[in-house]
Design goal:
Low-confidence stretches: 1-65, 353-375
Oligomer: single chain
Number of helices: 2
Radius of gyration: 19 Å
Mean pLDDT: 80
Number of strands: 31
Length: 381
Amino acid sequence: MIKLKTGKVIGDMSIGVTLFRLAVLSGIALTSLSAQSPAQIPAPSVAQSPPQIPAQTPAQTPAQSLDSRSCWLRDAASPGGSVVYALCEQGALFATADAGATWTKRFTGAANRLRAMAFLDAKRGFVIGDRATVLSTGDGGQKWEVRKVDTKEHLMDISFVGESGWIVGYQGIILHTRDGGRTWEKQNAKTTQTLETVFFLDPDHGWVVGWSGTILRTVDGGQNWQTVRCDAAQWSLTAVYFKDPLNGWMVGFAGQIFRSKDGGVTWQAQASPVKSWLTNIAFDASNRGWMTYDDGFLLSEDGGETWKAVPAAGRYFLSKLQRVNNSLWAFGQTTVLRQADGLKWEKIQSLVTDTTTTTNNTTSPATTSRPGGATNPTPKS
């Protein structure tokens, strides 16, 4: 049973099934749970990436501690042009320089589960993950090296604006770099809740959301983080997105949607057509808003004021939206979709197989899918 902060008990069996499925998708092991506080359950996340993709020679391929034959897509990045990177939580990285026509596979050498990545430019990038894993590349993902950071916590998300970057994770950890990731220092989040997602609009304005309705904001690059109270945010929050310094949205478990018009100082709940786990938010070039969930998309055609469900043909478990050129791509556990013409989406197949060439099938928006298990459904106490 799940208890809300109001004391109301929910015994709905479907929630239990959902939580179990999301726990499996997140790759949660009993051994990792034993290290957490009783109510905590880890989850997925997302970031950015590079161009020019030379082939990786066998000598450059590091030995893998994880199963490199498997791939659950965890994050994506596009540093510009037609270059896109897709990250597997098991340690592999798929790269395309021709907008998904062909892909090459390379390896990070990660010994722990990876959760997110970000690229500063075509060559310099980072992947992060469990047990304080931080790996960097200076050649577009050909070679990776370990970066030491002052924490042992699992790391959930990473974001860069220019040379400034932020990493968030368990126990309220926030790490910050001013020098392109060469050195990292802690920032004071004033919370011990797990932080799921970090989003920076510019070097000063940033927002973080996490478990049990945790919301943080900063206007000075994280020198000072302000805790924001939103009584309506009963459950954990998965994603936050701002179009400009004033207008933003955040989403989470149980179909939660919140809207801010004052830079995240206050939040108002919006009507949600679903009670599913919402995992990501983005706006396309035509100012249409998109959100991902298990059975499809939520779509807004009025600048994010109202949302409607767009059912999918199947469950792809999409959890990441990435801008590529002038269109959006949606990444799922083993599936990638891209906007083909406004409301239509095109499926890129075979991305996570050993084949480096993909084939495309076109599907209508009504058959596009955006699901997503990605965070911990911990209610406020």
